[in-house]
Write a structure and sequence with these properties.
Layout: E1 12-19, H1 21-24, H2 30-47, H3 52-59, E2 66-71, H4 74-86, E3 91-96, E4 101-107, E5 110-111, H5 112-119, E6 123-124
Parallel strand pairs: 1-2
Antiparallel strand pairs: 1-4, 1-5, 2-6, 3-4
Catalytic activity: an N-acyl-L-alpha-aminoacyl-tRNA + H2O = an N-acyl-L-amino acid + a tRNA + H(+)
GO molecular function: peptidyl-tRNA hydrolase activity
Pfam families: PTH2 (PF01981)
Length: 126
């Protein structure tokens, strides 16, 4: 059981945003879509490995927090990536190769309150 979050501890969260149309419209197998999210999350961690928040997140392996949200389509995912880049939010847009299809993105771990407002319009992936 994870230790309760106190006023002095920060809740670091890694957000992953996945295109829901891959499953619901384009009929991708669920396993293939989960794989895309895993690729993006791993890449975001790798690209930001030396970041202090990433190091803190990785130091607490048994209490990591990830939130998987859904973007309805490629356009909304690409627009989110642009917005995050404009705001200086570190993330990795995963583009499946060789098809060159943006499938999902993952942020580096952040304190929830820092990035949640930018992601408010995205709902939990279903």
């Amino acid at each position: 059981m994870a230790a309760p979050c106190t006023a002095t501890t920060r809740r670091l969260v890694q957000y992953v945003v996945v295109r829901s149309d891959l499953v619901h419209t384009l009929s991708w197998p669920l396993g293939a879509v989960i794989t895309q999210a895993c690729h993006a999350a791993t890449a975001a961690i790798h690209l930001n490995y030396n970041d202090p928040d990433t190091q803190e997140y990785l130091s607490e392996l048994d209490s990591m927090h990830k939130v998987v949200l859904e973007a309805p389509d490629q356009e909304s995912l690409s627009k989110l990536s642009e917005t995050l880049s404009e705001k200086g939010v570190a993330h990795k847009l995963w583009v499946e190769q060789p098809e060159n299809i943006p499938t999902c993105l993952a942020l580096k771990p952040y304190p929830k309150e820092m990035v949640h407002p930018l992601l408010r319009k995205f709902k939990l992936f279903k």
